[in-house]
C-alpha cells in the first residue's frame, strides 16, 4: 500500500504546487489520478519517487509511506532499490542515443543480480516489436515503440509499484488502447499501478479507484466506475456531462469547486 | 635524389604529427567525456595535466617505484584528485546551468596552478622515464623512443576508455546520464555518482597525456600550456564525439607538424601554435558542430 498524507510541495521555496494531497494506492490495484494542466499531478509523482530535488522542489509537510515505512526525502535510487517503486516519467523517458538493448541495460543498472538477461527476454516477450529493433537507436523509433520501451525499462528495475505519468501523451488512439491493455495486464500479474492521465475516460475504464486533483488538492475520489458516472467529472474531464447547452458563465469552475470542497 | 629527400622529410613530419596527435586525442577525450556528461567545458585541463604528472612524479621519482606500478598508482591518485575536485566544486552545482560549471573550472585552474607553484615551486623537474628503447629507424627516418611511447600509450589508454564506455555497465550508465540526468535518476541510476566517475576518468586520461608530454623534456607548472591544445582538438572533432576527439587530435598533430617543418622555416616563428586555431576557424565555418559533432536526432 502506497499512501500519501497531507502532502505539501513548494518549488523554489515560493511556488506552492501541492496544498495537502492525501491518497492511498491499494496494493494490486490501478489508482487513477486525473486533473487539468497545472493541477500538480506530475509534481505528486515526482514527490513520491524522490525526484523533487532535481527540480528544486521541497516537501514541506506531510508524509509518503510504502507499507509501514516512510519514503519521504529518500533518493530515487534508494526508493527503487529498497521499495520497488519506479516512476515512468512523462513524454517517453528513453535514452535517444542508446540502442533499445542498451536502454534496457541502463535501466537495470541499480541491480547486481545475474537475471538481467532473463528479464530482458521477458520484456521482449511482452513487447515483441522491441526485439526486432534491439540494435536500433531509441531516438529513431516511433512514439508508441518508445513508450513501450519506457515501460520495458521500468520493468527492468523489478518494480512492485509503477507510477505512470501520462503514458498516452502524443500517441494515436489505437496505440493508446494497446498501451492501456498492457498496463492492465501488468496489473493483473500483480503490479500496483498509479496512473496519471489526461485521457480520463480511458484511464478510469481500466482503473479501480480514481482521484481528481485540482489546484494541488484532491477534490473528489471514489471507485473508478462511480467517477465515470459522476456528473461533475463527466462535465469537466470527459466532456459529456452537461445535458443542455449552457453559457460559459454557468460552467465557471469555481462554483462547482465550492460544492466539492 | 632531391625528390627522395623531400619525401623522407614529409613522411618524417607526418609520422611525428600522428604520434603527438594521439596524445592530443587523449587530451580531447578528457574534455569530451566531461562535456557529454554535464555539458561543461573543463578549462582547468592544463592544471589537471600538471597535477596528474606531479602525482606520477611522486610515485616514480620520489618513491622509486617501478614504472609498471607507479603509473597505475599515479593514475589512481589522479582519478581520486578528479573525484575530490568534482565533489567540492562541481557537485553543488548539479542541476544548475552548465555555464556556471564551466566558469568554476576557470577558477579551479587558477587555484590548482598556484597550489602547484606553492608546493613544487616554479622550477623545472627533469623527467626521464627511461622506458625500453622503441626508436623506429628506417633509413634516414627516425622516430625517437619517447614519441613512439607517447603515441602507443595514448592509443592504449584511448582503447581502455572506449571499452569502459561501450562494453561495461558503468559505461552504459554514463552514456545514459550524459543524455539526461532526470531520466537516468528515474530509472535508478545514481547520476551524482556517475558524474564523479566521469571526472575521475577524465583526470586519468589527462594524467596519462601529461606524463607522456612531460617525458619529452621536463615538468614544471608551465607544462600545462600543452593542455590548451585540447581546445582546437575538441572543437574540430566535435564537442560531444569520442571518435571526433581522436580524429581532431590527429588533425591538430599533423597540422602542427606540417606547419612546423614547412612554414616556420620561412620566418614565421611560433606559427605552429597558431595554425590549429586557424584550421579550427575554417572547420567551424563549414561545420559549426565540428567534424563529428552529433547530428541531433530530430523527431518530426
User: Helix count of chain A, per DSSP?
Assistant: 11
Quaternary organization: heterodimer
The total number of structural domains of chain B is: 1
How many structural domains are formed by the residues of chain A?
A: 2
Structure overview:
The complex is a heterodimer of chains A (261) and B (300). Chain A has 261 residues and is of the alpha/beta class. Chain A folds into two domains: 24-58 and 72-84 and 159-260, Rossmann fold; 99-157, no CATH class. Helices cover 38% and strands 26% of the residues of chain A. In chain A, the strands form two sheets. Chain A has a six-stranded mixed β-sheet, sandwiched between helices. In chain A, helix 3 packs parallel to helix 6 and helix 4 packs antiparallel against helix 6. Chain A is globular. The two termini of chain A are 26 Å apart. The mean pLDDT of chain A is 87. Chain B has 300 residues and is mainly alpha-helical. Chain B has one domain (2-223). In chain B, the strands form two sheets. Chain B has a two-stranded antiparallel ribbon. A two-stranded antiparallel sheet of chain B has the order 2-3. In chain B, a hairpin with a 2-residue loop joins strand 2 (136-138) and strand 3. Classes of the chains: A alpha/beta (261), B mainly alpha (300). The interface between A and B is medium-sized, with 35 and 21 residues.
Looking at this protein, list some descriptive labels.
A: 261 residues, alpha/beta, Rossmann fold, 6-stranded mixed β-sheet, 4-stranded antiparallel β-sheet, globular, B: mainly alpha, two-stranded antiparallel sheet, 11 helices
Brief description of this entry?
The complex is a heterodimer of chains A (261) and B (300). Chain A has helices at residues 41-49, 76-83, 100-107, 116-126, 128-132, 143-156, 173-188, 200-206, 224-229, 231-238, 253-260; strands spanning 2-11, 15-25, 30-35, 57-66, 69-70, 85-88, 161-165, 192-197, 209-214, 217-223.
Amino acid at each position: 500500500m502506497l499512501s500519501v498524507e497531507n502532502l505539501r510541495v513548494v518549488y523554489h521555496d515560493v511556488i506552492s504546487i501541492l496544498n495537502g494531497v492525501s491518497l492511498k494506492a491499494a496494493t494490486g490495484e490501478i489508482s487513477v489520478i486525473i486533473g487539468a494542466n497545472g493541477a500538480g499531478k506530475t509534481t505528486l509523482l515526482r514527490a513520491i519517487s524522490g525526484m523533487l530535488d532535481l527540480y528544486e522542489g521541497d516537501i514541506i509537510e506531510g508524509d509518503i509511506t510504502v507499507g509501514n515505512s516512510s519514503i519521504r526525502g529518500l533518493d530515487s535510487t534508494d526508493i527503487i532499490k529498497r521499495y520497488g517503486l519506479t516512476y515512468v516519467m512523462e513524454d517517453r523517458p528513453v535514452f535517444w542515443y542508446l540502442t533499445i538493448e542498451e536502454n534496457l541495460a541502463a535501466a537495470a543498472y541499480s541491480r547486481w543480480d545475474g537475471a538481467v538477461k532473463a528479464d530482458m527476454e521477458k520484456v521482449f516477450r511482452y513487447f515483441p516489436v522491441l526485439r526486432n529493433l534491439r540494435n536500433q537507436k531509441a531516438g529513431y523509433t516511433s512514439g508508441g515503440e518508445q513508450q513501450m520501451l519506457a515501460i520495458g525499462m521500468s520493468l527492468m528495475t523489478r518494480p512492485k509499484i509503477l507510477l505512470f505519468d501520462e503514458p498516452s501523451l502524443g500517441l494515436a488512439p489505437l496505440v493508446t488502447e494497446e498501451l492501456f491493455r498492457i498496463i492492465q495486464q501488468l496489473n493483473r500479474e500483480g503490479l500496483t499501478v498509479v496512473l496519471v492521465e489526461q485521457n480520463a475516460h480511458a484511464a478510469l475504464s481500466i482503473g479501480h479507484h480514481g482521484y481528481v486533483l485540482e489546484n494541488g488538492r484532491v477534490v473528489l475520489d471514489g471507485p473508478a466506475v462511480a467517477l465515470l458516472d459522476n456528473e461533475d467529472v463527466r462535465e469537466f474531464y470527459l466532456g459529456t456531462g452537461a445535458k443542455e447547452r449552457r453559457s460559459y458563465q454557468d460552467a465557471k469552475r469555481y462554483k462547482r469547486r465550492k460544492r466539492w470542497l | 635524389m632531391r625528390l627522395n629527400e623531400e619525401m623522407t622529410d614529409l613522411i618524417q613530419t607526418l609520422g611525428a604529427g600522428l604520434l603527438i596527435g594521439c596524445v592530443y586525442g587523449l587530451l580531447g577525450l578528457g574534455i569530451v567525456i566531461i562535456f557529454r556528461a554535464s555539458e561543461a567545458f573543463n578549462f582547468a585541463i592544463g592544471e589537471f595535466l600538471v597535477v596528474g604528472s606531479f602525482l606520477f612524479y611522486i610515485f616514480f621519482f620520489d618513491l622509486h617505484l617501478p614504472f609498471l606500478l607507479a603509473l597505475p598508482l599515479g593514475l589512481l591518485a589522479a582519478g581520486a584528485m578528479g573525484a575530490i575536485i568534482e565533489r567540492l566544486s562541481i557537485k553543488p552545482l548539479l542541476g544548475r546551468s552548465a555555464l556556471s560549471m564551466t566558469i568554476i573550472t576557470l577558477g579551479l585552474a587558477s587555484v590548482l596552478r598556484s597550489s602547484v607553484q606553492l608546493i613544487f615551486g616554479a622550477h623545472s623537474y627533469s623527467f626521464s622515464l627511461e622506458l625500453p628503447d622503441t626508436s623506429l629507424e628506417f633509413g634516414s627516418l627516425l622516430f625517437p623512443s619517447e614519441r613512439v611511447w607517447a603515441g602507443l600509450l595514448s592509443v592504449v589508454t584511448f582503447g581502455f576508455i572506449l571499452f569502459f564506455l561501450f562494453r561495461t555497465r558503468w559505461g552504459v550508465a554514463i552514456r545514459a546520464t550524459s543524455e539526461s540526468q532526470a531520466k537516468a535518476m528515474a530509472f535508478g541510476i545514481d547520476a551524482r555518482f556517475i558524474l564523479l566517475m566521469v571526472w575521475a576518468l577524465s583526470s586519468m586520461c589527462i594524467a596519462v597525456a601529461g606524463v607522456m608530454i612531460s617525458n619529452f623534456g621536463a615538468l614544471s607548472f608551465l607544462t600545462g600550456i600543452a593542455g590548451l591544445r585540447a581546445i582546437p582538438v575538441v572543437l574540430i572533432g566535435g564537442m560531444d564525439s569520442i571518435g571526433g576527439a581522436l580524429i581532431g587530435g590527429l588533425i591538430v598533430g599533423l597540422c602542427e607538424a606540417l606547419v612546423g617543418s614547412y612554414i616556420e622555416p620561412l620566418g614565421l616563428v611560433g606559427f605552429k601554435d597558431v595554425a590549429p586555431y586557424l584550421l579550427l576557424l575554417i572547420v567551424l565555418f563549414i561545420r559549426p558542430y565540428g567534424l563529428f559533432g552529433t547530428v541531433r536526432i530530430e523527431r518530426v
